[in-house]
Amino acid sequence: MSTISKPRFRAVDITFVGMFAALMAFGANITSWAPFLQVANIPLSMQPFFAILAGLLLGSRLGAISMTVYMLIGMAGAPVFAQFSAGISPIFGGSGGFILSYIATAFIVGKIVESKSKPALTTFMIASFAGITTIYFIGTNYMYFAYNLWLDFDMGYATAWKVMAWFAVKDIMFTIFGALIAPRIYHTIKRTSRISSIQTKAS
User: Fold this and answer.
1) Cβ neighbours, 10 Å, residue 56
2) Is the Cβ–Cβ distance between 85 and 79 less than 8 Å?
3) Residue 125 burial (CB < 10 Å; 0-12/13-18/19+)?
4) Distance CA 20, CA 162 (A)
5) Which of 118, 100, 108 is nearest to 56 (CA)?
6) Interatomic CA distance for residues 106 and 66, integer angstroms
7) Does this model's pTM top 0.85?
8) Could you report the per-residue pLDDT of 148-171, keeping only the tens digit for each?
9) Is the N or C terminus of the chain more exposed, i.e. has fewer CB atoms within 10 Å?
């Protein structure tokens, strides 16, 4: 007797992954029209907000996949990184660690939300701050090592963190905002996914 295996990705999953990959591209370049909104060649962006939101709403698996898809699209040549850059070089630049951190962030955030069968606002808040901490830890340390090891730029470790302090207020505000709006969207997505699963089984 032959068995029919369940599809690994449903249409709704692919839609959400694509949507967040697109949001990351938008978030990376929202301030590209204003070159003065930069510190150490790193532009202000909405990417931390969307990366955390991906983990909150899509979970660890799909959230991390959406961030990976975003990174791969940029590496393949689409101008989706900050300042409409693309290719491999941005990964090895000062902000490359942040691109990599978004994958880990979405995964960790998603895991925290998934640890509760019915996550409350407190869970979303804890997950969100775990996410922004992950972004800053990976991104800032990567920036420090990138500048000092292969970009031929002398930057002290304390200086690297001082640079990122310029972004902290904005990111903390958006982290709180994301945690506050996430619960209602989360339950809407869950209902949509549940309906999609029922339709898939019935077809």
Assistant:
1) 28
2) yes
3) middle
4) 30
5) 108
6) 9
7) yes
8) 999 989 999 999 999 999 889 889
9) N
3 confidence band (pLDDT: 50, 70, 90): very low
Helices (H), 76-152: 96-114, 121-149
- Position 87: which residue type? G
Candidates 43, 45, 100, 92; CA nearest to 70 is: 100
**What is the β-pairing status of strands 42-43 and 38-39?**
antiparallel
Q: Which residues pair with 38 in a beta bridge?
A: 43
Residue 7 three-state SS: coil
Dihedral Cα 16, 19, 23, 26, nearest 10 deg: 170
Straight-line distance from the first to the last Cα atom of the chain, in angstroms, rounded to the nearest whole number: 20
Mean pLDDT for the stretch of residues 134-151 = 97
Domain definitions of the chain by residue range? 11-32+40-192
Per-residue pLDDT tens digits for 42-57:
566 899 999 999 999 9
Of the candidate CATH numbers 3.40.50.1240, 3.40.190.150, 1.10.1760.20, 3.20.20.140, the domain formed by 11-32+40-192 belongs to 1.10.1760.20
Structure tokens at 89: 């070089």
